Amino acid sequence: MRAPGLLVVLVASAAVAQEPSLELRKLLTTIDSPPTKAQLVERQGRDTAMALRALASSTREPLGLRRAALAALGYFDEPATRAVLSRLAQDPQPLVRKAALETLGFLLAGAKDGVLLQALGDEDPMVRRAALRSLGASRDVEVRAALARRLAVETDVETRAVLEQALARP
Amino acid sequence: MKLLAVVRHPDSVQRWCLALALVNALPGCFEPPCEAASEPGGPFVPCAAPGDAGRSDAGATDAGRADAGAGDAGRADAGRADAGLDAGRADAGRDGGLLPTSDAGVRVIDFGTLVLGDAGLSRELSFLVEPADEGFQVQVVGLGPSLDTYQVNRIFSPSGTVVAMGPDYRRHLSWSRPDVNVANAVVLESDDARREWVPGLWRFSVESRRPVATTAVAVKVFVKPRPPPGPQRLAINLLFTGSAGLTAATAPAQPRLTTAMNVFRDIFADAGITLDAPRYFDLPPGFSAITSTWEDAGSPPMGRSLEALLRQSSLAPAGMNLFFVETLILDPQLPPGFILGVAGGVPGATMTNGTGASGVAILFDSPRYVPAMGEDDPLGLVLAHEVAHQLGLSHVFELTGLVDNLRDTPTSGVDAEKNLMAPTATGNGSLSPSQGVTLRRNPVVRP
């Protein structure tokens, strides 16, 4: 008789626990003092990564907070984090796509990735550049071929400059 | 990365505040002394190698000399043994040299190039402050090929008081922070400024925090005469990389930027500083992403460095330089995307354009901002915050628990979070009276 009630309480607790705390939100509004992973965890607890993924994914949250949450996910390299980043790399908001690609690139550290390669064709040049910068350090033959193909069709001046910089790397 | 090396510096109290201030070695063209460029308000004059290169009087002391206050007195015996140090560097002259941003009667005392001794200390330097002066800024520019951290070691007032300390700077009201590779100190940054402000002969020395035998620095002091009562002015240069479609042509009518500039203007008006109408500049392609702090050992990965960006200030006339970028990463080892703005220093090189500390960089990666209910776009606050750093203000508190050195600033609680210099964008831009005084004392703020 008591077990279902306990289950409800546990489920409710889990839901509450991943709610981003006010302190976590404050920390993410940093102007120029990036918080450390320890500071984030101190404010939010063991479910910090989950709370950050929730913040990053929520369309009800301010763009700036979503961007900061995406950045903070760079501290939590987990399969669930990579899944969220890959999904948000196709968010309707260019700024969210860009932030997701930057963090994904940070976690991948130059490794080839389908999401990043796909983003080379994003409609927004800023997002294309974010993908480029995440991929640009790669020496992978397939990546460099993709960059070369993009350069052949790229019309945006700044993006071309980044592409040329990437391809010029030895 | 060298950024990390500096971040780990035991004296890097305000870790990120300092990290944000870190800048790289100048391009080759800072051949001291540059006499013509030292004239306040004068036209741009590229640096030229001095005719007396090779003099070897570095190390001679001029302690106690009343050598300042007029023209270039005060650098007559500045060591120039290493003039031409940068000769042959591939980037020499790339930015056309340094540009004095001084005007409105600011006196420039140019000590030329100093070679620091084995202990990393310069000889003592001195300059004269008149009763009608308001404040001064010391500027130290590293000239060596490698990054080093410099600091105005100690500043003595004519009455013998240590006004700004060196390595123990946190223990004193006026701070002279160590910075790489352009260090600046504005004196006096304290509530006791009026009491400590004594006309006469002021003395200071320069310290390298990582001494190497051949370290050379160029040193200047900018002395600001006391302005007449009333608001002062700050010239504004906005420099664009094309981020989020923002250019010199589109910026004047860009709604998000216009709103933010109004917020910035209101915050500074409350501090008694009127912003001049901005001047707009486009940068060449390739600067939209800042992906490191310094341009060391070749290009940083897939972007430019902060110091390379700020050196582009040589394009602009005297004033506060604000650069707009779409990516702002200072430490590639940390997750990207946290930083909304960064100043060239605390204070930065407000009196000289063309250095790696001559301006602030602002993240502008969206042409519009979608705020949540009850929330404002933080961009205006970020503009004001970074410019305040550049003029000499610290954070009122740090996430590490450290606080600033002004007695009338709130350092905890809601009031601290509302202050312009809270490290988070939680504020309404409020400033304490002492913060206003510090901002107005910077020589780039003029009558």
How is the topology of this model organized?
The complex is a heterodimer of chains A (170) and B (447).
Chain A: H1 2-17, H2 22-28, H3 37-44, H4 48-57, H5 63-72, H6 79-88, H7 94-108, H8 114-119, H9 125-135, H10 141-153, H11 157-168
Helix pairs in contact in A: 4-5, 4-6, 5-7, 6-7, 7-9, 9-11, 10-11
Chain B: H1 2-7, H2 15-21, E1 99-100, E2 107-115, E3 125-129, E4 133-142, E5 150-156, E6 162-164, E7 182-187, H3 193-196, E8 200-208, E9 216-225, E10 232-234, E11 236-240, H4 255-270, E12 273-275, E13 279-282, E14 289-292, E15 304-305, H5 306-311, E16 320-325, E17 327-328, E18 341-343, E19 352-353, E20 360-363, H6 379-391, H7 413-418, H8 433-441
Parallel strand pairs in B: 10-12, 11-13, 11-16, 14-15, 14-17, 16-20
Antiparallel strand pairs in B: 1-19, 2-9, 3-8, 4-7, 4-9, 5-6, 5-8, 18-20
What does this structure look like?
The complex is a heterodimer of chains A (170) and B (447). Chain A contains eleven helices and no strands. With 170 residues, chain A is mainly alpha-helical. In chain A, helix 4 runs parallel beside helix 6 and helix 7 runs parallel beside helix 9 (125-135). Chain A starts with a helix and ends with a helix. With 447 residues, chain B is of the alpha/beta class. In chain B, the strands form six sheets. Chain B has a five-stranded mixed beta sheet. Chain B starts with a helix and ends in a 6-residue tail after the last helix. Mean pLDDT of chain B is 74; it is low at 1-97. Chains A and B meet through helix 5, helix 7, helix 9 and helix 11 of A and helix 2, strand 18 and helix 6 of B.
